[in-house]
Amino acid sequence: MSKKTIEALFLGDICGKPGSRALFIGLKQIIKDHNLDIVIANGENAADGFGIMPEDADTCFAAGVDVITSGNHIWQKEEIRSRLDSDSRILRPANYPPGVPGHGVTVIDAHGIPIAVVNLQGRHSMPVTDCPFRAAKELVKQLRPKTKIILIDFHAESAEEKEALALYLDGQVTALVGTHTHVQTADEKILPKGTGYITDLGMTGAGMSVIGSDPAVSIARQITQMPLKSEIADVPAMVNGLIVTIDTESGKALELKRLRVFYAI
Asked: How many angstroms separate the CA atoms of 263 and 265, rounded?
């Protein structure tokens, strides 16, 4: 018999080695504690803050991640590009132009229930891509005959753009979560027609940092306005995310719980 509810965890941007350590140390216990059925993590910053290497993806999967989403830094490491074509569990934003490597959507099985995961990228203060609103509408049209459970990671800078897309898709998708800013927001809510939403999941990475980076370098960049290269802060890490309880019959979100865990590693 199929489950009546599914527990899905979205994890915010995995940032460098501290983020990977936090996953390795803590994710399996988090899965056990919350009886999770699927884990989706944004991995575009796993390789020292910029991009993801194949070995970073393998580390995520070994820790318990089911699907890796990404964003504007997915093209940073050339080594991942062939893997994007061969492994549908690693997504790049679906609204890049036709012909780029990889997949923007995947459908996975959880207890015999198909779950669609979609990756989209915003356009405000981001690299130019095709319209995420049009892309989302078309993908939902394609996916709804296959499953009622559609989960979207919208990798975007603008809170306005994130909220607008969530309300545009309200009732058509199960949840839309924002990534990219590395700062967890406290606005999780279920929209009027049943779509779960949060503006940003936050970050899986260094706790005492500037969005994952060494504070000294980040402060110097602000004071001098010089293009100093960001360096990942090698300090104890945290995991930020959102747990969504899903009604498998309707595909609607029933409950949202923010996750924020600190580790002394």
From this structure: 6
